[in-house]
Amino acid sequence: MGDLGLFLALLFFAVLFISQALLLPVAGQKAKHSELTKRLKKAQKKIDEESLSLLHEYYLKEMTPFERQMVKISLFANIKKMIELAGLNVTLGKILGWTVITSFVVTGLSIFTGQFWYVTLALFLCVYVLVYMFIQKKITYRLQKFEEQLPEGLDMIKRVLQAGQPINQAFKEVGDEMPDPIGIEFKKTFNLLNFGYDMRLAILQMVDRTPTISMLAFSSAVILQKETGGNLTENLDKVGKVLRARFKLSRKIRTLSAEARLSSWILVLSPFALYIMTMFINPTHASLLISDPRGIKAVSIGMVSLAIGALWIRRIINIKV
């Protein structure tokens, strides 16, 4: 039972490595370091402290008293941010509570079935890893969905502006007419503008909730028009065309790299397939790999090599658009 548990734990981590390293999203990746990000940070510095303080109070009002105390710790504040980015309708306390309870239940079952201590430790950590992977997957899906909807939203904003309506009304139309996640985001921005918040502050808050390159491009166009003037309709039309072209190129890159990703899956999983075959053909010989200290050392080195290989392949096929 212990040998089987070790094998399943190693198989799980192998699938974890390649799924995180090789399953690249078409879009929806969080923007980190770019020229647009630097511009927005400069714009944020121009906002007065009083407005930022009011926005922080508005943010805290949506939390429970327990969450307000927890977000004072940076770790829990980051987890809360991840939950918001994922669009999950669950409180920070609930997701932490269920995760802790599940991890202890899994640990208890592992001890009861007589697993090795390192298998028990791996299973305990796996619960947290799986929760993290689930949240990250939801974040990627939500941001990807937002990027797919944004060009259509820009077209709607452009039509409203051409009809002579203010941009506030354009945000309201997008929020009312389009589905989530873009609908709810534009509704929140419209509500902030209705409460009297500055346009730059409301837009930057929207960027914080949907930190994608597409959103950075849209927000830069709006903030630039707010500060220097110009034809916002024409700028949004150009941004929409660029976003559609970018998304089309991302799809093409994913199609062209499909063969490389499939090869990576085969190369990483083939050692486990070979071991399963050996278990049926010669069980005694197969058990030596996870019972003999030299076998454990070889498996450990192999796992590290698999992780390095998967991450290396990711760097090769992950072309930034």
Plain-language structure description:
The chain has 321 residues and is mainly alpha-helical. Among the domains are: 145-240, Receptor-associated Protein, CATH 1.20.81; 257-321, no CATH class. Helix content is 83%, strand content 0%. It is built from 15 helices and no strands. Helix 6 (92-112) runs antiparallel to helix 7 and helix 9 runs antiparallel to helix 10 (199-209). The two termini are 48 Å apart.
What features would you highlight for this structure?
321 residues, Receptor-associated Protein, mainly alpha
Going by CATH, the architecture of one domain would be Up-down Bundle
Number of strands: 0
Mean pLDDT across the residues is 78
Class of one domain in CATH? Mainly Alpha
Distance between the termini: 48 Å
Strand residue content: under 5%
Report the structural category: mainly alpha
Q: Unreliable runs, pLDDT <50, ≥5 residues? A: none
Instruction: Specify the overall morphology.
Output: elongated
What's the SSE pattern? HHHHHHHHHHHHHHH
The CATH topology name of one domain reads: Receptor-associated Protein
Number of helical stretches of at least 4 residues: 15
Query: What is the alpha-carbon Rg in Å?
Result: 24 Å
| Proportion of helical residues | over 70%
Please describe the biggest sheet, giving its number of strands, its sense, and whether it closes into a barrel. Answer: none
Question: In short, what is this structure?
Answer:
With 321 residues, the chain is mainly alpha-helical. It contains 15 helices and no strands.
List the helices and strands and how they pair.
Blueprint: H1 2-22, H2 35-45, H3 49-61, H4 65-70, H5 74-86, H6 92-112, H7 117-162, H8 167-177, H9 182-194, H10 199-209, H11 213-228, H12 232-256, H13 258-281, H14 283-291, H15 293-317
Helix pairs in contact: 1-7, 1-13, 1-15, 2-11, 5-7, 6-7, 7-8, 7-12, 8-9, 9-10, 10-11, 11-12, 13-14, 13-15, 14-15
